[in-house]
Amino acid sequence: MPGRPPAAPNPAGAHFLRDRALISRLVRASGAGRGDLVFDLGAGYGTITTALAEAGARVIAVERDQRLAGRLRRRFDGHPGVRVVEADLRRVQLPRRDFLVVANPPFSATSALCRRLFGDPAVPLAGAELILQWGAAKWLADPVPRDAETAWWTCRYQVSLARRISAASFLPPPAVDAAQVSVRRRPGAAPPSAQRDLRRLLRAVYTRGNEPLDRSLKRLECGGPAESGSAIRALIVAAGVSPRTPGTQLTAEEWYQISRQLTGRRRAASLPN
To answer: Which CATH architecture has domain 192-267?
Structure first.
């Protein structure tokens, strides 16, 4: 951008948010309140952690940098609502109960973090407010998933681009702007059998380019030899999607509706006669 000084080298991809008004908006948008369990992943100097603690949340501040983690421990020493964990956000142990994430993670960790939070159905993430690099935020919130992995994520979570954030809001400023991304868990958790069906369907669609769903389904055995692509075709139609549509052009909402149909069928099959 004209007039903007070049960004300083920053191999870790950490850009610390210094806009306190924006941090307050992040916390409000998350809905985090008294007693809620919230992770600040890549806590840095603790500005987001502080705002979450002031809202009454129980905060796990995760920071990999030893120096910053030590500073966080001193800052929040004796605070009953904050626990500082010195760990890599990509490998830190996550809880088994519902939790939120409000964070400005290092931009270099975006893909790994998304896989960690959204990819595993066993992770009970209830929602998140994330500050991500602008390009990454755009692909994550795109109405049409770019690949099978992103489609899998958006079947479980609704992702929206809340606002663009100027690079000047960070220290050091990144080379490009960032964005606030809001993530909300979709209703209706799919049982493992429906999850397997959906994964097979997504793999079949995204490995065959832009061919219509009908053509992919002819070669698909989803859920075992007893079921053919025609059974899945009926569910796709019931979801309001034309089987003539190229699978790679389906929106996140359409994939979610298909996943709901798969879930409904599996739950119906499990009921006693």
So the answer is: Orthogonal Bundle (1.10)
